[in-house]
Amino acid sequence: MIKLNNVQKIYDNNKQRVTALKNINLEIKSGEIYGIIGYSGAGKSTLIRLINMLENPTAGEIWVNGQRMDRLNNEKLRLARQKIGMIFQNFNLLSSRTVRQNIAFPLEIAGYPKEKIDKRVSELIKLVGLTERADAYPSELSGGQKQRVGIARALANNPEVLLSDEATSALDPKTTESILNLLWEINRKFGITIILITHEMHVIKKICHRVAVIDGGEIVEEGPVTEVFGNPKKEITKEFVKQVPVLSGND
Ligand SMILES: Nc1ncnc2c1ncn2[C@@H]1O[C@H](COP(=O)(O)OP(=O)(O)O)[C@@H](O)[C@H]1O
Ligand SMILES: [Mg+2]
What we know:
Residues 2-241 form the ABC transporter domain. It is built from 9 helices and 10 strands.
């Protein structure tokens, strides 16, 4: 349902030209949790931002649910983006809005009536376990709570796809664990396709079904997590395997 064909991305500023992605071919199935792992600068954020067209490809095709994303007009792109939620390492919450108001934000933009927004926001707050903190401001929350707000906000418009760019990278191990459990539960309950970017092997190991290893703007290995990491072929993949002691499925 998500397909990238021969995708290339070159950043061309006045001073320099950076080839961030070389020739990406990728197919992500509906309902799976797909991990993309690579070191800093490998092109992970660029790749994920191409899926909701926060970046334009220099060449190639981007398909989401049968729609060619890089060919949509502004209005169609706006609607397509409502079906693609995104969460970030630094949460990107509005500091002047409470938990409830942050989660309501995308629903206000989509133009829903107040009663409908209130009902949906209450459901989401319950789903992410923030009932007691509904009227708190972001500055009053822990990192894990902030990311729960980010997740609730990303899910507000009932997306089919959730993009996660290093969403647990600013969190301690225990909080990371609880956020990954929440993403896992969301995937199972609602069948939302999750694309998760990380530089941390244990994140992939914990919740991803399939994984791509990206290095220097190219996918160097790809497949089911147990296959890729059970029998790593490239040096970089072996380095990631060394990050965790023993690999034995999704335990
Ligand atoms: N807006 C931009 N302008 C110019 N170069 C960029 C821009 N965004 C990213 N890059 C460059 O593209 C490459 C890939 O970056 P990025 O996709 O952010 O990698 P990652 O998320 O894996 O760290 C890097 O060399 C980075 O410096
Ligand atoms: Mg990045």
